[in-house]
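Milestone 3.1: sequence recovery, worked example.
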């Protein structure tokens, strides 16, 4: 089992639009497609930086999931509808985390 830490940085002036997209649209789709979101945050005093933690069996499972998700017509419709005034996200970073062996025994 691995965890994936994802950080999105909203473009200037677009943070609230990005939060709205997650709250009103994206989380519903995440539930529909079975994404295991462990937790979700924004950086204290900086709503432009959104961080969330997901769980997958392997790194390959995570990569396969996001490849499929990015081509899902439901996601593409959400993205198009919420980016009529331009993109919301300046950058996305992904870090894969695993528990050290010494904590597994």
């Amino acid at each position: 089992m691995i965890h994936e830490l994802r950080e999105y940085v909203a473009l200037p002036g677009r943070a609230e639009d990005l939060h709205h997209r997650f709250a009103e649209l994206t989380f519903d789709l995440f539930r529909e497609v079975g994404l295991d979101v462990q937790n979700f945050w924004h950086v204290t005093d900086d709503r432009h930086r959104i961080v969330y933690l997901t769980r997958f069996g392997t790194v390959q499972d995570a990569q396969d999931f996001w490849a499929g998700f990015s081509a899902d017509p439901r996601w593409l419709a959400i993205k198009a509808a919420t980016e009529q005034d331009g993109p919301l996200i300046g950058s996305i970073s992904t870090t894969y985390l695993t528990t050290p062996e010494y904590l597994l025994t």
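The chain has one domain: 2-100. The helical segments are 15-33, 59-71, 73-82.
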